[in-house]
Amino acid sequence: SQTIHQWPATLVQPVGSPLSLECTVEGTSNPNLYWYRQAAGRGLQLLFYSVGIGQISSEVPQNLSASRPQDRQFILSSKKLLLSDSGFYLCAWSSLAQQETQYFGPGTRLLVL
Amino acid sequence: QKEVEQDPGPLSVPEGAIVSLNCTYSNSAFQYFMWYRQYSRKGPELLMYTYSSGNKEDGRFTAQVDKSSKYISLFIRDSQPSDSATYLCAMSARNRGSTLGRLYFGRGTQLTVWP
């Protein structure tokens, strides 16, 4: 069966510090991968998606970036965090056969102070 | 107008009640409809998946899609305290040959079932 991991689970960072969040998927090959942010009362916002290694599409202009160095690894980064980057970050995957069905990881709660 | 509208609640019901959760949408191209359940401080969990119009039942849960009205519903029968969570609707208009199943989410409805 497929599993998706995210770490860290919780992170408290000062404004201006760098960020690296990691997501890995097990039990599937060549998944589509997604990064979402969930802010309180604002629903899920798609940040990035990837259909293959090195292929990243950005949905929203911001100070975040994403990379996919391996088939089942997806990384969300920032060089300098802003207060507005606080939120709950979720990684998700979908298969090629059923791309509209996404499965989410446990999430990373980020607080920027 | 947002593509997907969902009343955020909160909704509070007694144990054993029938719960009705709803979403409306504006894009007639949507053809895949999902319901996710999200417990506090956890990632969303896929609960129900429906293609096109009609009903789908899974245990105490029934998903309904009315494409003519652009309206979807999730019914929970014999609700339990363990059903207390936020329920998110999601939709997709993926076309054959597309490489991406982009989802459009509602904001979620917070449900509390009290014993």
Which regions of chain B contain 5 or more consecutive residues with pLDDT less than 50?
none
Q: What percent of residues of chain B are in strands?
A: over 45%
Describe the global form of chain A: globular
Number of strands of chain A: 11
* Average pLDDT rating of chain B: 91
Residue share in helices of chain A? under 10%
- What is the N-to-C order of secondary-structure elements of chain A (H for helix, E for strand)? EEEEEEEEEEE
- Structural class determined from secondary elements of chain A: mainly beta
The succession of helices and strands of chain B, N to C, reads EEEEEEEEEEE
| Class from secondary-structure proportions of chain B | mainly beta
Enumerate how many helices of chain A there are, as a single number: 0
N-C termini distance of chain B? 38 Å
**What is the number of beta strands of chain B?**
11
Q: Termini separation of chain A (Å)?
A: 38 Å
- Helicity level of chain B: under 10%
What is the quaternary state of this protein?
Answer: heterodimer
Radius of gyration of chain A: 13 Å
Strand content of chain A: over 45%
Structural features:
A: 113 residues; mainly beta; 7-stranded mixed beta sheet; 59% strand; globular; B: 115 residues; 6-stranded mixed beta sheet; 5-stranded antiparallel beta sheet
Descriptive account of the structure:
The complex is a heterodimer of chains A (113) and B (115). Chain A is mainly beta. Helix content of chain A is 0%, strand content 59%. Chain A has strands at residues 3-7, 10-13, 19-26, 32-39, 43-52, 55-58, 64-70, 73-78, 87-94, 103-104, 108-112. In chain A, strands 2, 4, 5, 6, 9, 10 and 11 form a seven-stranded mixed sheet that branches. A four-stranded antiparallel sheet of chain A has the order 1-3-8-7, with no helix packed on it. The model of chain B has no long low-confidence stretch (mean pLDDT 91). In chain B, a hairpin with a 2-residue loop joins β6 and β7 (61-66). In chain B, the strands form two sheets. In chain B, strands 2, 4, 5, 9, 10 and 11 form a six-stranded mixed sheet that branches. With 115 residues, chain B is mostly beta strands. In chain B, 34% of the residues are buried. Chain A binds chain B through residues 6, 32, 41-44, 46, 49, 51, 88, 90, 94, 98-107, 109, and chain B through 8, 32, 34, 36, 41-46, 49, 88, 90, 92, 94, 98-103, 105-108.
